[in-house]
Write a structure and sequence with these properties.
With 81 residues, this protein is mainly alpha-helical. The chain has four helices and no strands.
């Protein structure tokens, strides 16, 4: 996080362009702009590493088999049929 804070501090001075700073810090311009926008939105907390864990899984089934996935099981079809 020190590298990110140093990047943001140098960018705030206005003496360097984002492109120059990105070259010096060996990061892409996309990453540099991402750090600057996170800092602008959230301050120092925005520079902390974010989780890369997915928020959900589209093909995951429900944990409770009673709730089901909306599909009819064979035994339910026989009862209803």
């Amino acid at each position: 996080m020190d590298q990110k804070m140093q990047f943001v501090s140098l960018a705030a001075t206005g003496r360097f362009t984002v492109t120059q700073l990105c070259e010096d810090f060996n990061i892409s311009r996309k990453t540099g702009h991402k750090w600057l926008s996170r800092y602008a939105a959230e301050g120092g907390q925005g520079l902390s590493n974010l989780s890369r864990r997915p928020r959900g899984c589209s093909h995951q089934t429900t944990a409770d088999p009673k709730k089901g996935s909306g599909l009819n099981s064979c035994s339910q079809i026989e009862r209803d049929g």
